[in-house]
Amino acid sequence: MQLKDTSLFRQQAYIDGAWVGADGGQTISVTNPASGETLGTVPKMGAAETRRAIEAAERALPAWRDLTAKERSQKLRRWFELMMENQDDLGRLMTLEQGKPLAESKGEIAYAASFIEWFAEEAKRVYGDTIPGHQKDKRILVIKQPIGVTAAITPWNFPAAMITRKAGPALAAGCTMVLKPASQTPFSALALAELAERAGIPKGVFSVITGSAGDIGNELTANPTVRKISFTGSTEVGAKLMEQCAPGIKKVSLELGGNAPFLVFDDADLDEAVKGAMQSKYRNAGQTCVCVNRIYVQDGVYDAFAQKFQAAVEKLKVGNGLDEGVDIGPLIDDRAATKVREHIEDAVANGATVLTGGKAHERGGSYFEPTLMVNVPHSAKVAKEETFGPLAPLFRFKDEAEGIALANDTEFGLAAYFYSRDLGRVFRVAEAIEAGMIGINTGLISTEVAPFGGVKSSGLGREGSKYGIEDYLEIKYLCLSI
Ligand code: ADP
Questions:
Q1: Which residues contact 378 (CB under 8 A, 6 or more apart)?
Q2: In the prediction, which pLDDT does 207 show?
Q3: Predicted confidence (pLDDT) per residue in 387-429, tens digit
Q4: How far, in Å, are 33, 39, 62, 220 from residue 320 at the CA level?
Q5: What is the value of pTM for the model shown?
Q6: Among 237, 242, 244, 288, which is best to mutate for testing ligand 1, by the most ligand atoms less than 8 A from CB?
Q7: What is the pLDDT of residues 95-130, one digit of tens each?
Q8: Can you state the angle between helices 186-198 and 161-173, rounded to 10 degrees?
Q9: Is the C-beta atom of 233 inside 6 A of ligand 1?
Q10: Is 415 helix (H, G, I), strand (E, B) or coil?
Q11: Residue 228: its pLDDT value, please?
């Protein structure tokens, strides 16, 4: 594994400040997608261990909530610093279990740490309100308080950032949290728990349980002590969790699937558009929920854009994420590669042409060639479903109205992107597209300072920014008669 600090590699879960195995001793193995080798194991826990983590979070809550905001802030700040001090090791661990190129992993650690830093600052700025009374003798105050015990379930595509984006605001607000990371990438989560412990986050405030998603999810949603669940993952699982949370009227934040459109208008700067499309499409081998899924190019620039884009795609280097100069690592597993293949086959059967790539990579395993298709019909599967892989399909459109209609022709509404230099068009299109986030003349939009989240079937709530902490606070109104 070759970590400078080998104690960051933890193969036990972290409950109530202790490193523990599953009650029955069962484990699940974690595989390196680049080689198929087993990296290690983590406990296969279920309802009983989850209940204990929730009870610990409940016990830890009063003392954590009662610290001053500044005291919580200082501990979070230390956690942030420790993440940055261990960026190399954390990045390496991430590439080993997730597959993304090392530079991207280290970038994600900095991005993940930035949420802890940001919310360490925001902890001190949870302001209330005073409202002019409705009667002469009344004074009205609004205060904000932590929701209480919270839970998070996170995916494998961003093994660190999806955790800190939830744990940062939760802990800053004074909530405690039980986290279940994805079973493909638990080591990044456990390393974060190790650093949280070193940062002085008290036991029970942040626990990490690994194991059966169904059993753990059932307990987290059914247990009345948990007052809020934050989930990032598929729309299907998100809907199920929301349903499970309904009887207990638990708050839910959901960051779900996307199907991001990327529109290139006739007046766009094509070189910039190619750059943005490359960044948004092929980052993490196309496995991000804000990855461009559908590229719509206006008739007048279609061929020129396709040509420039093809040249850029052909430069991408596929390989083991630990090797120098690699742009695209393996996909997370074979199932992911199968989905990319299916989307290509479906589009080609319906008239699309593959300009470059199009098949499994010669390295084998779950490696897939970066692929570009042109003349893709609007009826193709890839127009409707998120591919989550290195496949870029180019569609044509005639005018602004058609571009907007095509962009909105989806149940999803997470991210959208477009390129245009016409100021009037920029506002018209940005306001008309149904998405929570719009990249205008840029393919990179993620930052801790801006609100991340979707509309329609892409989710509920916002993460990051000053809005992100609101998801972990309750509003209480005090009516005082004097
Ligand atoms: P993906 O397709 O990106 O793996 P999933 O929605 O399947 O997305 O997984 C995201 C997270 O949700 C993972 O941590 C996974 O283990 C968890 N998960 C999957 N199924 C369930 C479930 N039924 N209840 C709770 N969590 C689940």
A1: 395, 406, 409
A2: 99
A3: 999 999 999 999 999 999 999 999 999 999 999 999 999 999 9
A4: 9, 15, 46, 36
A5: 0.97
A6: 237
A7: 999 999 999 999 999 999 999 999 999 999 999 999
A8: 40
A9: yes
A10: strand
A11: 98
ipTM score of complex: 0.94
- Answer whether 153 contacts ligand 1 (Cβ < 6 A): yes
State the pLDDT at residue 1: 80
Q: Is the CB of 154 under 6 A from ligand 1?
A: yes
How many C-alpha atoms does 431 have within 13 Å on its Cβ side? 6
Q: Which residues are catalytic?
A: 255
SS3 (DSSP) at 421 = coil
Share above pLDDT 70 across residues of the chain, in percent, rounded to a whole number: 100
**In this predicted structure, what is the pLDDT of residue 193?**
98
Place of tokens 């499970």: 244
Instruction: Judge contact between 65 and 292, C-beta under 8 A.
Output: no
3-state DSSP assignment of residue 74: helix
Say how far apart CA 66 and CA 452 lie, in whole Å.
Answer: 29
What 3-state DSSP class applies to 56?
helix
Instruction: Please check whether residue 383 is in contact with residue 331, taking contact to mean a CB–CB distance below 8 angstroms.
Output: no
Atom 13 in ligand 1: which residue has the minimum CA distance? 182
Assigned token pair, 450? 């801006």
d(CA 40, CA 450): 36
Residues shown for the chain: 482
Helix, strand, coil percentages, rounded to 5, for the chain: 40, 25, 35
Ligand 1 centre distance from Cα of residue 362 (Å) = 30
pLDDT of residue 472: 98
Mutate-to-test residue for ligand 1 from 153, 229, 338, highest number of ligand atoms within 8 A of CB: 153
**Are the C-beta atoms of residues 112 and 160 closer than 8 Å to each other?**
yes
237 touches ligand 1 (CB under 6 Å): yes
Nearest alpha carbon to residue 285 among 355, 370, 182: 370
CA distance 118 to 165: 10
- Token code pair at residue 350: 């319906």
For residue 269, is pLDDT > 90?
yes
Task: Give the mean model confidence (pLDDT) for residues 190-211.
Answer: 98
- pLDDT score of 64: 98
Atom of ligand 1 minimally distant from the CA of 332: 4
How far, in Å, CA of 470 to CA of 448, rounded? 15
d(CA 299, CA 398): 6
Residue entry with tokens 């059993």: 215
Cβ of 183 closer than 6 Å to ligand 1, yes or no, is yes
Q: How far does residue 182's CA lie from ligand 1's centre (Å)?
A: 7
Compute, in angstroms, the gap from residue 218 CA to the centroid of ligand 1: 12
d(CA 431, CA 40) in angstroms, rounded, equals 48
pLDDT (mean) for 3-21 = 98
